Amino acid sequence: MSLNFKMELYKIKREIKRSGTECTIYRDVLNDFGEPTGELEEVLKVKGLYHEYNPHTLDTYVYTTGEEIGVGRNKKTPQILCLFDDVFFSDNEGEEKYMHVNVGDVCYFGKDKYICTGIRNYQELNIAVDISFEGVGEVESRHKV
After folding, report:
1. What gap in Å lies between CA 114 and CA 135, rounded to an integer?
2. Cross-strand bridge partners of residue 30
3. Where are the beta strands (DSSP E) in the chain?
4. First to last CA, the chain
């Protein structure tokens, strides 16, 4: 059974157009020594489908597991499903693909800050990518004095 790439691309484009969320991704500006300055510059504005991934099979928000050393928690992580061509660009010859987004880039959903933890080419088909995030907004607010 072969996959109709044009049809799959059309279905994803249609869903993003209908239910998509616009997401702006920022990167920390570096000084002359390669150190972060605390200023953010816009890297990419992309429209995609917001969804959450739960690494455990149960439908729970936080699932605790007992381990020998301690207790681990699995939380739902936010992701954006975007078109491959919106996140990747090619060099002059079109042979190599480069990402606009890097691990460590920042995005805001509402007032909460999220850091990009990974970019996955969905089924390696170069049709869609999932950008995964980890929330840090709650952590920062607890440490404010």
Report:
1. 4
2. 36
3. 21-30, 36-53, 62-66, 71-75, 77-83, 88-90, 97-99, 106-109, 112-121, 128-135
4. 60
Which tens digit of pLDDT belongs to each residue from 59-114? 444 445 555 555 555 677 889 999 998 988 776 665 667 778 999 999 998 888 99
DSSP letters of 44-66? EEEEEEEEEE-SSSS--SEEEEE
Classified by CATH at the fold level, domain 5-143 comes out as: Thrombin, subunit H (2.40.10)
Confidence of residue 56 (pLDDT cuts 50, 70, 90): low
- Block residue for tokens 């909460």: 112
Domain boundaries along the sequence of the chain: 5-143
